[in-house]
Amino acid sequence: MIEEITQNNLDQSKSEVKTQSEMPKSSSNKKIIAFLFILFILITGIMGAFLVKQYRFPEVIPVPTTMPTPNAELSPAPYILEASPSMQLSQAHNYFGFNIFHQLLNEDKGKNIFISPLSIHLALSMTYNGADSTTKEAMAKTLQIQQMDINQLNKDSSALIDLLQNPDPKVEILIANSIWMGIGENFNPDFLTANQTYYKAKLDSLDFNDPKSADIINSWVSNNTKGKIPTIIIPPIPPDMVMYLINAVYFKGNWTVEFDKKLTTERLFTLTDGSQKEYPMMQQKGNFLYFENDQFQSVNIPYGKNKRLGMHVFLPKGNLENFTNELSIENWKKWLTEYKEKEGTIILPKYKIEYKKNLNDVLKSLGMAVAFSSQADFSRMRENPKLKDLYISEVIHKTYVDVNEEGTEAAAVTEVGMAKTVAIQEKKTFYMEINRPFYFAIADNQTSEILFMGIILEPK
Question: Which one of 311, 375, 397, 444 has the fewest beta carbons within 10 angstroms of its own beta carbon?
Answer without folding.
Answer: 375
